[in-house]
Amino acid sequence: MAELPDGALGTYDEICERLDEIVADVRSKDTSLERSLDLFDEAIELGSRAVEMVDRIDYSESGDGAPEAEAGEDGGVPAGEGA
Questions:
Q1: What is the Cα–Cα distance from 27 to 31, expressed in whole angstroms?
Q2: Nearest Cα to Cα of residue 39 among 8, 2, 11
Q3: What mean pLDDT do residues 4-8 have?
């Protein structure tokens, strides 16, 4: 896949797909150090976008601006719920 212009990766899945492509390119023995560094910069930017998307989803799903708690601190059912 050719490098896409900024903003062309609109979904989380598209970002993950591009990150997978970057990893494959960097692992290739035919990729120069300079190209690898450019790909690294792109990966950092894409990772930041993905984190922002996840953060927006966490805050928007709760409805009150606070992230939803999915489980108690120990990973189990929150206190006062369940069996």
A1: 8
A2: 2
A3: 53
